[in-house]
Amino acid sequence: MFNATRSVLEKIAIDSQQSYAQRGDAKSALKKLLSFDFVFILHLMEDIMGFTDGLCRALQHKSQDILNAMHLVVGTKSLIQKLRDDGWELLLQKVHSFCNKHDQQLQELNSRFSEQTTELLTLSASLSPIDGYKHFDVENICRLAEKYYPQDFSENEISHLKYQLELFYCDVPKHPDMKNLSTITALCRSLVENRKSDVYPLVDRLIQLILTLPVSTATSERAFSAMKIVKTSLRNKMEDDFLSDYLLVYIEKEIAGKFEIKSIIDDFYSMKPRRTRVK
Predict the structure, then answer these.
(1) Which residues form the HAT C-terminal dimerisation domain (predicted)?
(2) What is the reported pTM?
(3) What was the pLDDT predicted at 273?
(4) Which of 69, 110, 165, 229 is least enclosed by beta carbons within 10 angstroms?
């Protein structure tokens, strides 16, 4: 329940379709949710409600057994008193364990999905054609180009991009071959097939840049994962060039596995004269 609530608040906090007030409320609620005080009260209430649950259920019965009800009252009071006298240390251990667990998860999420990366992916979604271009947002798309691709668009092109997007939104969603698309990849392909890429060259350029994101992200993830395996304590002195070549072969091992040893040896000898031969 805690993870689900946090996930919903995080999505609302970065959702560009929400109002500033809603995003602000979500960020404020998320900050309180992740605070130590909130977690402590949450665990305390869980213990207290766990102790009193049996008594509450018994008192809701239409026909009351007074004797058993009194026994439940006495037992419940005893458990709460025990929690008050001897349960604080165990409670604090639970709270610290909970905080450490979720803090580590949060750090891992932040390292993999930083605020900048999350914003980049969120803005990119504004070009998605799914549900009849429901999420299409001209301001977000222009912000994407201006903030994350300043080397690919000049100031003049950024200015023209807005008008091109306005015209794009009036035209493309009504086109019979382009109104039911579901992915940005399909949109890019359809733009070329219907020669719309010539009509909206800036939009087509931005879409192609967006489509490089999954590749670059996956390659980076694979490279860092491979680094942990390749550069062990026994190989910690290898030079950068050798490490780079080693990683390339490891990361692309599926492709490297298709090369024949004979062809590799031939290429090795063709590079320069060798003193000895291995074949």
Answers:
(1) 195-254
(2) 0.43
(3) 74
(4) 229
